[in-house]
Amino acid sequence: MKKIFIIAGEASGDSHSAELVRKLKELDPGTRFYGIGGNNLKKQGVELIYSYEDVNFIGFTAVLKNLSSIKAKLSEAVEKVKELEPDAVILTDFPGFNIRFAEKIRKFYKGKIIYYISPQVWAWHKDRVKKLKKLCDAMLVIFPFEVDFYKQEGMEAKYVGHPLIEKTNRFISEHSKREKANKIITLLPGSRPEEIKRILPGLLEVSKKLQDETCAEIKIISPPYLNAGFYKDLVKGYNVEIVKDDEDKNTYYETIYNSDLVFTKAGTTTMECTLLGTPFCVAYRAGRINYLIGKNMIRVNFVAMPNILLDKAIVKEFIQNEMTIDNLYSEGKKILTDEKYREEMKSNFARIRELLGDRSASATAAEIINAML
């Protein structure tokens, strides 16, 4: 009986890893899975040693504050691999934890270490490539340009497709746009309480201005683990609907798909909006120290992946001091009222779909991994 240890360090990684586990189980139903993750991996029958929430902290300052706890959890995971002696260890993104984990287990572990969804070493921490070359038996990437990047660094990488292609294609094929009386503005301020508190007030203020002019409905998509009480003070005085992210009911994709405008933080959500064809702009404000540190380390011109993929600003990014009410209002109003602008944005979204192809990332990755074991 094969044993696989898998680590997903945040919500999107948990979702993508769960799809991979599902495909691996189809190829070999007897495989046992262990690891670190969230509800999606748990639903696939993965025996979790703890939740990713125990080690997922955003920003340099938060990591420093929780360093002793993170180290303890890292050691716990290392000991579990010693105990299990799995046939493979699969790491999904989450490089700060995963690379340290791989360094520690490589000292004694003789099985395969496979990275599924590469860390964004082409954007920052390029020095990590040398470590990855020594530690990994396979690098499975989800963006075509990453193959060339790793090749230039003397490391082989295999493009498996983007996991959101399959998910969004399936959703679009099964759902139609809803008829609605008013336009819909959706806010995606993040998944962590501290970033939501930092970003949401500004998004609400600008959305209220647009609502007053257009009678639009405002929706906030909430991560499943935050209850309505968390938002009580934040949304006081605003006419908004809080939509709980429920993957079983497709509330997340359905809300984005039927929106006319999305204000979102940077991250996976930018690709989700792109592949669902919903116009959006990026708004993000980090803590001052985290921003200053990050600004000096990032080596790309954009933060939103759709812009990086086409190497041009197909969607506007309002980061830190540029995240002003005036900037967001101007862009939001243009998206809502300028049909030509909307169609140009959607045309670029279609180019990205074409660039990524239509292969199943989870199925392709599962076949590669299964062949290695």
Q: Notable features of this structure?
A:
Rossmann fold, 2 domains, seven-stranded parallel beta sheet, 16% strand
Structure description:
The protein has helices at residues 11-27, 39-43, 60-65, 67-84, 95-106, 128-135, 144-152, 163-174, 193-214, 228-231, 251-257, 268-276, 288-295, 305-310, 325-337, 339-356, 361-372, and strands at 3-8, 32-37, 47-51, 88-92, 112-116, 138-141, 158-159, 184-188, 217-222, 240-244, 261-264, 280-284, 317-319. α1 crosses α17, α5 (95-106) crosses α6 (128-135) and α8 (163-174) packs parallel to α12. Helices cover 50% and strands 16% of the residues. The longest helix is centred in the middle third of the chain and has 22 residues, at 193-214. β8 (184-188), α9 and β9 form a beta-alpha-beta unit. It has 373 residues and is α/β, with parallel strands linked by helices. The protein folds into 2 domains: 3-162 and 358-372, Rossmann fold; 170-356, Rossmann fold. The protein has a 7-stranded parallel β-sheet, with helices on both faces.
Put the structure in a nutshell.
By secondary structure, the chain is α/β, with parallel strands linked by helices. It has helices spanning 11-27, 39-43, 60-65, 67-84, 95-106, 128-135, 144-152, 163-174, 193-214, 228-231, 251-257, 268-276, 288-295, 305-310, 325-337, 339-356, 361-372, and strands at 3-8, 32-37, 47-51, 88-92, 112-116, 138-141, 158-159, 184-188, 217-222, 240-244, 261-264, 280-284, 317-319.
Number of domain units: 2
Q: Specify the biggest β-sheet.
A: 7 strands, parallel
**Low-confidence regions:** none
Order of helices and strands: EHEHEHHEHEHEHEHEHEHEHEHEHHEHHH
- Looking at CATH, the homologous superfamily of the largest domain is Glycogen Phosphorylase B
In spatial order, strands of the major sheet run 3-2-1-4-5-6-7
Helix content: 40-55%
How large is the radius of gyration?
A: 21 Å
Q: Supply the helix-strand structural class.
A: alpha/beta
At CATH level 3, the topology of the largest domain is: Rossmann fold
CATH class of the largest domain: Alpha Beta
Oligomer: single chain
Span between N and C termini?
11 Å
Number of helices: 17
The name of the CATH architecture of the largest domain is 3-Layer(aba) Sandwich
